Amino acid sequence: MSQHRIGAVLVLDDQGGIAGILSERDLVRAMNKLGKAVFDKQVGDLMTSPVVTCSPKDPVPAIEGMMTSQRFRHVPVVDDGKLVGIISIGDVVKTRIEEAEAEVDALRRYIAL
């Protein structure tokens, strides 16, 4: 995960449904609790389940609020029962900054009239 700069991986069941998510935080907590024994565990023993998901139609501020209140940084995006992506807190922050910059530009144009 570190080598590829991946903060979390989804764990899918045999039908392609989301069985869980394994994040860096899950691994750190498991290493703290289990020490070297963590290497004897299977992913299913360490992953978070059930997984909170969102829809492509969900507003970014709602996803941001969910991530903040529930303290996670990755949310699978599910549309019509199918996994279509994953959104990270970095994606959310980038979008919110772009929205703020667009608003500032619009206000500048309005004032310049």
Could you explain how this protein is built, in words?
This protein is of the alpha+beta class and 113 residues long. Helix content is 44%, strand content 21%. The protein has 4 helices and 4 strands. The strands form 2 sheets. The chain has a two-stranded antiparallel sheet. A two-stranded antiparallel ribbon has the order 3-4. The chain folds into 2 domains: 51 residues, CBS-domain, CATH 3.10.580; 61 residues, CBS-domain (Roll). The longest helix has 24 residues.
The radius of gyration over CA amounts to 18 Å
Give the domain tally: 2
- Please identify which CATH superfamily of the largest domain we are dealing with: CBS-domain
Shape assignment: elongated
What is the annotated CATH architecture of the largest domain? Roll
Query: What is the number of strand segments?
Result: 4
The computed structural class is alpha+beta
The biggest beta sheet reads: 2 strands, antiparallel
- Provide the spatial order of strands within the biggest beta sheet: 1-2
Number of helices: 4
Helix content: 40-55%
N-end to C-end Cα span: 51 Å
CATH class category name of the largest domain: Alpha Beta
Q: Would you tell me which CATH topology of the largest domain applies?
A: CBS-domain
What proportion strand?
15-25%
Low-confidence stretches: none
Secondary-structure element series = EEHHHEEH
Mean of all residue-level pLDDT scores: 94
